[in-house]
Amino acid sequence: MKKQQTKISNAVIRRLPRYRRYLNELRKKGVDKISSNEFSSLIGYTASQIRQDLNNFGGFGQQGYGYSVEGLYNEISAILGLDREYKMVVVGAGNLGKAIVNHTYYYKTGFVVKGIFEVDPELIGKSINGVEVMDYEGIVEFVENNNIDIGIICTTKEVAQEVADRLCFAGVRGLWNFAPIDIETPSHVAVENVHISESLHSLAYHMSRATDDKK
Amino acid sequence: MKKQQTKISNAVIRRLPRYRRYLNELRKKGVDKISSNEFSSLIGYTASQIRQDLNNFGGFGQQGYGYSVEGLYNEISAILGLDREYKMVVVGAGNLGKAIVNHTYYYKTGFVVKGIFEVDPELIGKSINGVEVMDYEGIVEFVENNNIDIGIICTTKEVAQEVADRLCFAGVRGLWNFAPIDIETPSHVAVENVHISESLHSLAYHMSRATDDKK
DNA sequence: TAGATTGTTAATCGATTAACAATC
DNA sequence: TAGATTGTTAATCGATTAACAATC
Predict the structure, then answer these.
(1) Which of A34, B4, B65, B204 has the fewest CB atoms within 10 Å, i.e. is most exposed?
(2) Chain B contacts in chain A segment 148-167 (CB below 8 A)
(3) Residue A37 counted as domain residue
(4) The pTM is what?
(5) CB contact at 8 A, B174 and A203
(6) CATH number of the domain that B47 lies in?
(7) Which residues of chain A are within 8 Å of residue B164 when distances are taken between CB atoms?
(8) What are phi and psi of A79, to 5 degrees?
(9) B208 belongs to a structural domain
(10) Within a domain: residue A30?
(11) pLDDT tens-digit series, residues B106-116
């Protein structure tokens, strides 16, 4: 991370995890180096775009050689902030909440679920992949005492903003929202609204176009 | 849908579900009409962009009045292809698969899960929200016999492409992929790769920026 | 060194915003 | 009719691609 004077566009940031994912696959295959041209044909962005994107953050390559796969993977990880651990809580122990707990468990990433919160007394006290399901009433105290970084919202859209407000009050620095509503946060709390069903609608659009074209 | 001569950019298509979601909320609140200016302050796009976006598909408004909320909601639904029913199958009865079945059950949308497919004998024969879990071996026959439109991939990334190939062979017209890999399909099969964890990486990026800024 | 490939500037392309004439 | 607001063209802005000098 050498430069970073100008603001990086969101389009660039959205591409970084994809670069990282491909680099990780190469790394696991034992590939040492890659040129922007080789990477281009693999990942589907132009070589020019790849070099342009990376040079927003620094000169990670070497002229005449290319990029070190391992090195670039680590650089991008650091840029994304993935070189540290994030403590998270999940609100809502339904299937989606469970799926997320399970995912972090399965992939063993730097994102660790420390607690799950629920209002349903049936679920409180149980445990999901070794993580305790607790009463939603105690969430503020838990977030404060455990230095939780991220709140994951897996509730209905009706209570999502309320839950978000409480999590922000308790001191999280980021929210990952799966409720179908746009969560608002104070400017110091980052938020990512996922909107899974909107991607299904986009799929439906492309499917009807494909059908229309045949006529 | 009057025009549609030129190709619509993906940026526009991604905004359509969001327009629709906000219109649905207005509709439920009993709001009859909305101007592009009012809509702008609600949804956070410029009035100009809203008008520009909509006029890709037709003149849905009325000068001096605005847009009919109900009318525009229906138009956008039709553009997205949401005025019909989609039959779907889920592959993988883990937590994510369950969450999706539950979601379509809960929201009663036009997307109906007709079957769930698994390789784990422990799960085959069970039922999730009234949908039977079947042996993955029988998926091609099922898709053919039940005119399935969409395959939902909730498997590991190792088998995801293989599952995709089989679904395409069986005749689905769209794939909704949750495995962390980019699924390839023949051009007549639409595909939406979700990549949930990439949105978490983007969140991490914004969180580290916020922290850096404080320094 | 010569060849390869980056880093970076310049050119192009596309998407967003502004402006305003058309019209309800 | 006058006022409001769309539909649409023109201007601007930003992102992508192309080109090439720098350099390993």
Answers:
(1) B65
(2) 149-150
(3) yes
(4) 0.94
(5) yes
(6) 1.10.10.10
(7) none
(8) -60, -45
(9) no
(10) yes
(11) 888 899 999 99
